[in-house]
Design a protein that fits this description.
Layout: E1 4-9, H1 15-23, E2 28-34, H2 38-48, E3 51-53, H3 56-60, E4 67-70, H4 77-86, E5 90-93, H5 101-113, E6 118-120, H6 128-138, E7 145-153, H7 158-162, H8 177-193, E8 196-204, E9 215-222, E10 227-233, E11 242-248, E12 251-256, E13 259-265, H9 292-307, H10 315-334, E14 338-339
Parallel strand pairs: 1-2, 1-4, 2-3, 4-5, 5-6, 7-10
Antiparallel strand pairs: 7-11, 8-9, 8-14, 9-10, 11-12, 12-13
Helix pairs in contact: 1-9, 4-5, 5-10, 6-8, 8-10
Length: 345
């Protein structure tokens, strides 16, 4: 079988992770990389022994590229994805899908109109422990679910935000600790708990010189009747693990950085538990994120192309965390309880 050619655009923090992941997939071949900064493009191109570009449109002209990984600043995702779709390329889009629902929907529409696959990146869904947590809820093993919480106390220095002009801006980052870092775990909470009925939130910028929030707290009511909470910050030195906890009347589970650190079900003698990490990957260093789960996520999209099926994380799935984050921002700005779904028309 001829390998599926992949191009990667955007070679900052996460683009090289995509490039590395593609090289680990037997059915795929990294063909080219692209970045507006020539030094980045040249460095990563030479590192992986592939052609490099500073002109995205030129890369899209290549017939040997069937898929493009979009790893540019968040507020550029839809625009660059739409360009790929119009060029007949399948799309793998880093989180978030984009920073507004209008742009998310435009990308989803473009993929459908041009008959290409659109897969989102939320790699934590591909960890066995994450799937176990979801399975426990779906199968009713925890009984009636009463609480579902997300807690992310990470750290980013001011130098991190100063490293690129787009970081910490509403236009291109779309938000702060929630939309950039926390969106991963907001997605995971939604995936496990299901849709949210309403949210009431507060956000603040406490330690950084940025436009957007570095600290956020939200109260949620899920459509299944459970209550929940979201806490996120990039101001907690030195950075603590991200945590999802689900509490039910017959059992509870705690997930920390792709590990189940607590699981107890009524009537079962054994307690499933894995060693708690001392320092979480990515909690303080965005360059410390391993490729493993990205490889699984990208592999699923490659297989979806080969098998002509939808990826496990479709554009519509990737949109959900963006919508909840936008609802949180709207609640913080207005002081009101915000009901979902949001209506932007």
């Amino acid at each position: 079988m001829e390998k599926i050619g992949v191009g990667v655009v955007g070679l900052g923090a996460i683009g090289p992770t995509h490039a590395r992941a593609v090289t680990e997939i037997e059915e795929a071949k990294l063909v080219a990389v692209c970045d507006v900064r020539e030094d980045r493009a040249r460095k990563i191109g030479e590192q992986f022994g592939v052609d490099w570009y500073t002109d995205y449109e030129k890369m899209l002209e290549r017939d040997d590229i069937q898929v493009v990984c979009i790893c540019t600043p968040s507020g550029m995702h839809a625009d660059m994805g739409i360009m790929a779709a119009k060029a007949g390329k399948h799309i793998i889009c880093e989180k978030p899908l984009d920073v507004t629902l209008e742009k998310c929907d435009a990308l989803i529409k473009a993929a459908k109109e041009n008959k290409v696959k659109l897969g989102g990146i939320f790699q934590h869904r591909f960890a066995e422990e994450s799937r176990l947590m979801k399975k426990l809820v779906e199968e009713g093993k925890l009984g009636k679910i009463v609480l579902g919480d997300m807690d992310m106390k990470w750290y980013r220095s001011q130098a991190y935000y100063d490293s690129d002009a787009w970081r910490g801006t509403w236009a291109l980052d779309g938000g702060g600790c929630l939309m950039n870092q926390g969106v991963h775990f907001v997605d995971l909470l939604l995936w496990v708990m299901g849709p949210v009925e309403w949210v009431k939130a507060e956000t603040a910028t406490l330690t950084h010189n940025i436009e957007v929030e570095d600290t956020a707290v939200a109260i949620l009511k899920f459509k299944n009747g459970a209550l929940g909470a979201i806490e996120a910050t990039t101001s907690a030195y030195p950075g603590v693990c991200a945590r999802i906890s689900v509490a039910g009347y017959s059992g509870s589970v705690v997930w920390e950085d792709d590990k189940i650190t607590f699981l107890k079900i009524e009537g079962e003698e054994t307690e499933a538990k894995t060693e708690k990490p001392v320092m979480a990957w990515g909690a303080s260093d965005p360059m410390a994120i391993p490729a493993g789960l990205h490889t699984r996520n990208i592999y699923d999209v490659i297989r979806a192309i080969i098998e002509d099926r939808e990826p496990l994380i479709t554009g519509e799935e990737a949109r959900k965390a963006v919508e909840l984050n936008l609802a949180i921002y709207k609640s913080a700005q207005t002081g009101e309880k915000i009901f979902l779904p949001l209506n932007y028309e």
